[in-house]
Structures are given as C-alpha cells and as structure tokens.
Design goal:
The complex is a heterodimer of chains A (about 230) and B (about 220).
Chain A lengths: L1 E10 L2 E11 L4 E5 L6 H8 L7 E6 L2 E2 L4 H6 L1 E4 L11 H11 L5 H11 L15 H13 L5 E5 L7 H16 L3 E5 L3 H7 L2 E6 L2 E7 L5 H12 L4
Parallel strand pairs in A: 3-8, 3-9, 6-7, 7-8
Antiparallel strand pairs in A: 1-2, 1-4, 4-5, 9-10
Helix pairs in contact in A: 3-4
Chain B lengths: L1 H18 L1 H20 L11 H22 L6 H7 L4 H30 L8 H26 L5 H29 L4 H29 L3
Helix pairs in contact in B: 1-5, 2-3, 2-5, 3-5, 3-6, 3-7, 5-6, 5-8, 6-7, 6-8, 7-8
Classes of the chains: A alpha/beta (about 230), B mainly alpha (about 220).
Adenosine-5'-triphosphate binds next to β2 and α1 of chain A.
Chain lengths: ~230, ~220
C-alpha cells in the first residue's frame, strides 16, 4: 500500500526527516510512536500531500506521490492536529460540504448518520464554534472518514476524547480495518496503540529507530522498546 | 473542476450570509464614501459629474480589498485550507471558487451602492446603461481575479493586510486606469464612445491574459 524510500524533509536548514524507509502492506494498522518533535506529524503531512518531500520516493497504492496526487487524495482520510472544520457551520453543514467535495452520494443522510455515530446528533445544527474540544475532535473524525477512505492517516486521534468517544473511535478504526483499510496512527498513548495496532514504529530525530510487529497485545513490550530507543537505556 | 469551484463559492457565500461580516463592512464602506463625497461636492452642481467615475472605482477598489483580504485569511482558522488542499480538488478549482465568491460579493456591493450614488447625484444613465454595465463587469472581473490570486499569495505572510494592496495596485493599475477612463467617457462624454471602446478592449485583453496566468500559477502559490 505505502512504499517510502529514502524520504527526507528539510525546512529552514534543518533536517526534520532524515531518510525514512518504510513499507506498509494493505490492511495493516500501524502506530507511530516517538518523542515530541521527532517528525511524526511531518511524515503524515508528507503522505497527506500537504508538504512536498525534499528528496526520496513515495508511492501509495502504486501511485507516485508527486504525479498522481488526485488519485491519492481521493483515497486518503487525514486527521491532523487541527480540526479542519468551519467554525460558524454546524456539524451537518461541515460534513455535507466536505462530503460534496469528495463527491459522495446521499451526502445529507450519510452526514446525519456519521454525526449520530460519533454521538452528537443532539448538536446537529449548532455551530461548531460553541463546541468543546472533545466534541470538535469527534466531528473532525467524522470528517476524516466521510468518504470511507482505504487509507487513514490519524495524528493523535485520541487527544481530548472522553472514554466513550475513545471507544467509538476504536470501533471505527477496527471496523474499517475489517473492511481492509490501512491505518497509520501517530499517538502518545501506548495503551491505545497496543489495543488497535498490529505493528509499531518508533521515530526519533527524523529516523525510524524501531519497527516491530505486535503478535500479542502486550503493553509492556511496547513501553520497554520505547524506553530503550527514546530514553536511551542501554 | 467547475463543480468543486461552485461548491467552494457556495460555501463561502453561505458562510457570508450567516456572519454578514465582510459584506456588511463593504457596504457600509461604500455608503460612507458616497456620503462623504456628497458633502464635499454639491450634488446640484454640474462639475460634480466629473468626479463620479472616480467615486465608483474608489468604492470598488477599497471595498474589494476588504473582501479579498478576508477570503484566504478566513481559511486559516482550524487550518481549513489544509482541508481543501488534501481534498481531491485542483488548486485551480480553489482559485476559481474563491474568485466566484469574491466576484459575487463585489457585484452585490455595486448593485446596492451605485443606484444610491446615482440617485443622490441625480444622474440619468439609462441610454448608455449597457456600456456602463460592461465596464463595471470587466473592470471588476480583472481586479478581483488578480486580487484573488495575490490574496492567496499574501495570505501566508504575517502582514498580509498590508501586503495585498501593496502588490495589488501596481499590477491592476492598467485595469483601473482603463476602467476609470471608460466610465468617465460613458457617463459624461458619450459622443466619444469609440475611445471608450478602445479602453474596454484594453481591459478585456488584460483580463484574459491575467486570468489565464493566475489560473496556471496558482498551483505554485497554494502550498503549505
Ligand atoms: N514548517 C516548519 N519549519 C521549520 N521547522 C519545522 C516545521 N514544521 C515542523 N518543524 C520542526 O520539525 C520537527 C518535527 O515536527 P513534528 O510536528 O513532525 O513533530 P511531532 O513528532 O509530530 O511532535 P509531537 O509529538 O509534538 O506532535 C520539530 O522540531 C519542529 O520544530
Ligand atoms: Mg505531531
């Protein structure tokens, strides 16, 4: 699904990504861990076609990231730190607009269903600007999956969510995984990472320092490996 | 491509309908300009006719800048611009959508303020109204299309409110000179219609060239 070769990204004379090589198969759920400022969000932004890599080669589903942007954009759902929602629009209006942009049929019904799924049908027509952080995050998740993308890029999707919303999000990710969706998830939450993902990647200083599969859902293994790589316990 | 552009334009206009911030500011501005000019120049006096073309384009230019400044800045809240950039729409669709929204807004401002102006200064333009309309439309078209492009360009800068007019005036001055001249001839000296037509042709050519140029170059401007 995703092939990354020798990817680097430079900004202001500073190397943010220094040679990432990564291959992700279709249907995998991959967690990306790493300390603050490691370059995790930057990697997702490159994959989301928001920023151009300085060098290296990326293909997604066989499409070149530089040449076939339109095809890649269509099959990608991206949830960044910010919500990408219009403040004075209601959840319904936001979702209908983005749904239309992606050319979805029955947008209105689909949006209403999604808002219900994330548990905010009571606020269907309230402007988003009055929402709390967790509520905004719920709508932002709905926005990212409205076109049922076969590739999901999630940047710290669990921030600000209450326990109920975490369960909703995890169910969404798991049910999309059953449909064959590939998910890349940046997170600082080891527990969610172990529960959801079958592969863990640790990034430090713009490089992949560890990459392993999780056969059993063992939280200890993840935190041990993380400490080894990041906190430098040798 | 057109579909995405229309969606975006519709989104912008609907949100303007909700907040009424920009359009209200633009119309209030237009009203103030007309009011101040009516104090400064006696509407009953015949020499007043000479300043009307200037007043019209002062309204369009400054009200236009008010709207243009907002059009891309408004997409920075919650990074909604990123939402558009990751969506399957071409950069040119974004340009076209923003252009359509800005153009409709300036047309609404003209529609509201100019009849008021003509009424106040007791102007009868019925005979050459089509020509007047033509100048208004193609003048605004050029000004707004270049303005939309430059607004996208300056939106990433910290001082975009200042940068936009600074970039806009030199580039659009041929359009503005042509439009003011053509308006003046049509409103005060209709016998010289042929020279007004020459100005109109100049504006039209400029419009086409710059619209195509903006359309092509927007790809390099809309990046994060
Ligand atoms: N546009 C930019 N210009 C210059 N430096 C940047 C830019 N964007 C990011 N950086 C730098 O790149 C590094 C990696 O940033 P990034 O946002 O990818 O970190 P992250 O791994 O997502 O961290 P966090 O866990 O805090 O979200 C940081 O040191 C940041 O300062
Ligand atoms: Mg980050």
């Amino acid at each position: 699904m995703i092939e990354i070769k020798k990817l680097t990204k430079q900004a202001d004379n500073k190397l943010i990504l220094r040679g990432i090589d990564l291959s992700i198969k279709k249907g995998e759920t991959v967690a990306i861990l790493g300390p603050n400022g490691a370059g995790k969000s930057t990697l997702l932004k490159v994959l989301a076609t928001l920023i151009k890599p300085s060098s290296g080669h990326v293909t997604i589903n066989g499409y070149d990231l530089r040449k076939n942007q339109m095809k890649i954009k269509k099959m990608m759902g991206y949830l960044p730190h910010s919500s990408l929602l219009y403040d004075h629009y209601s959840p319904l209006e936001n979702l209908v607009f983005f749904g239309n942009v992606y050319g979805i049929k029955n947008v209105e019904q689909k949006s209403i269903d999604l808002v219900r799924e994330v548990g905010l049908s009571f606020f269907l027509h309230e402007p988003v600007k009055n929402f709390s952080r967790g509520m905004i995050q719920r709508i932002a998740i709905a926005r990212a999956i409205i076109h049922e993308p076969p590739l999901l890029l999630l940047d710290e999707p669990h921030t600000g969510l209450d326990q109920g919303a975490i369960n909703i999000l995890n169910n969404v990710i798991l049910s999309m995984k059953e449909k064959g969706t590939t998910t890349l998830m940046v997170t600082h939450d080891f527990k969610q990472a172990t529960e959801l993902c079958d592969r863990i990647i640790i990034i430090k200083n713009g490089k992949i320092v560890d990459d392993f599969r999780l056969e059993e859902k063992k939280l200890n293994l993840v935190s041990e490996k993380y400490q080894l790589q990041v906190e430098g316990v040798s | 491509m057109l579909r995405a552009a229309l969606l975006l334009a519709k989104k912008d206009l609907l949100s303007e309908l909700k907040t009424k911030q920009v359009l209200a500011t633009m119309i209030i501005f237009a009203g103030l300009v007309i009011l101040v000019f009516s104090f400064a120049f006696d509407p009953a006096n015949n020499t007043t006719r000479a300043v009307i073309p200037g007043v019209i384009w002062v309204i369009i230019v400054f009200a236009g800048i008010l709207g243009l400044n907002r059009s891309f800045i408004s997409e920075q809240r919650n990074d909604t611009m990123h939402g558009l950039l990751i969506a399957p729409m071409e950069a040119s669709s974004i340009f076209l959508g923003k252009f359509l929204a800005n153009f409709s807004m300036i047309m609404i401002v003209e529609l509201v303020s100019l009849p008021f102006l003509f009424l106040l200064f007791d102007f009868h333009i019925l005979g050459y109204f089509p020509y007047f309309l033509l100048v208004l439309v193609i003048g605004s078209f050029g000004f707004i299309s270049i303005g939309t492009f430059l607004a996208a360009l300056s939106a990433n800068s910290k001082s975009s409110e200042m940068l936009l007019p600074l970039l806009l005036f030199p580039v659009t001055s041929p359009i503005l000179i042509g439009a003011v001249q053509a308006t003046r001839i049509i409103l005060t000296n209709i016998e010289k219609l042929s020279s007004a037509m020459a100005w109109i042709q100049l504006i039209a050519a400029y419009d086409v060239i710059f619209f195509v140029l903006c359309f092509i170059l927007i790809d390099y401007v809309l990046e994060v």
